[in-house]
Design brief:
The protein is mainly alpha-helical and about 240 residues long. It has 13 helices and no strands. The protein has helices at about 5-15, 15-25, 35-45, 50-60, 60-70, 80-90, 90-105, 110-115, 120-140, 145-160, 165-180, 185-195, 215-220. Helix 5 packs parallel to helix 7. The longest helix has 17 residues, at about 120-140. The radius of gyration is 18 Å and the shape is globular.
C-alpha cells in the first residue's frame, strides 16, 4: 500500500461532520475528517510499516499523520525523525497522542520527553509531558528513575500556573499517570493532585474540560488498578 493509496482511502472515509468537529479542536487543512475508528481499521490491514508511516506524516495531512503514528515502528524510529514529528505536531491529537506514543516505545523516549518539556513551543512542551506519561504507563517501576519522577511532580506543583493551555492539561495528566501507574509514588501524586484542585484551560469553543486529577486517581484506586502497566503506549 502506497501513501497515495492511503490518502485516497482517507479522502473517501472523511465526513464533513467529523471534519467540523476536528477543526473545532485545532485541526487545520489539509485533512479529510476521518474517525479514529476508521484509522484503526486501516492500521489492522497495513500493520507496522515504518517507511509508509514516515511518508504519511510528511504529507502534512492530519488524518494521515495520526495514522502514521499507529503504523510506525518505535524500534526503527530515530531521534531526528521524532524531533521532526514533534515540530510538525501542531495540535493536540498529534502532540499529545501520535508523537508521544511512538516516542515512549522508542529508545529515545525519556531523553526527548525531558528535552521537549523545556521547549517554549506549546505543543512541543505538551508532547514532552505526554511522552513521559506514556513511559510511566508501560515501564516497570524498577526501571524508572523515581527521584526524577518525583521531581517532575514538584515541577508540576510549582510551575503549572503560568504554563500554556495544552501544557497545563498534559501536566495534570502526568500527575494522573503517576498516581495510576507508579505504585511507589501514589501518595505523592495524590498530594500534588489535591493541591492542584481545579485547573483551568481555555478550550476555545469546545466543551473539553481538564480532568480532576485527585478524582481520577481515586477512581483508579477504587478499581484496584493502581500500578497495572499497559502493554502498549497507544490506546
Amino acid at each position: 500500500m502506497t501513501a497515495h493509496d492511503v490518502l485516497a482511502e482517507l479522502k473517501a472515509l472523511g465526513t464533513e461532520q467529523t471534519k467540523k468537529t476536528l477543526a473545532r479542536h485545532g485541526a487545520r487543512e489539509p485533512f479529510f475528517g476521518v474517525r479514529v475508528g476508521d484509522l484503526k481499521s486501516i492500521q489492522k490491514r497495513v500493520k507496522p510499516d515504518h517507511a509508509l508511516a514516515l511518508e504519511l506524516y510528511d504529507t502534512g495531512n492530519s488524518d494521515a499523520m495520526y495514522l502514521a503514528g499507529l503504523i510506525a515502528d518505535p524500534h526503527k524510529v530515530t531521534k531526528a525523525q521524532l524531533r521532526k514529528w514533534a515540530k510538525g505536531a501542531y495540535w493536540y491529537m498529534l502532540s499529545c497522542f501520535t508523537v508521544p506514543w511512538v516516542a515512549a516505545e522508542s529508545a529515545h523516549g525519556r531523553e526527548l520527553a525531558l528535552e521537549w518539556m523545556d521547549s517554549k513551543a506549546e505543543q512541543t512542551a505538551a508532547a514532552g509531558w505526554s511522552t513521559y506519561s506514556s513511559l510511566l504507563s508501560i515501564t516497570p517501576d524498577e526501571d524508572l528513575d523515581l527521584a526524577e519522577v518525583e521531581a517532575l511532580l514538584d515541577r508540576v506543583a510549582t510551575g503549572i500556573g503560568p504554563a500554556p493551555n495544552r501544557v497545563r492539561y498534559c501536566m495534570v495528566m502526568f500527575v494522573v499517570s503517576v498516581g495510576s501507574y507508579v505504585a511507589p509514588l501514589v501518595a505523592k501524586a495524590k498530594t500534588v493532585a489535591a493541591a492542584l484542585g481545579t485547573v483551568e484551560v481555555d478550550a476555545g469553543d469546545t466543551d473539553c474540560a481538564v480532568p480532576d486529577a485527585a478524582a481520577y486517581i481515586a477512581k483508579v484506586e477504587k478499581m484496584g488498578r493502581v500500578g497495572k502497566k499497559r502493554k502498549t503506549a497507544a490506546c
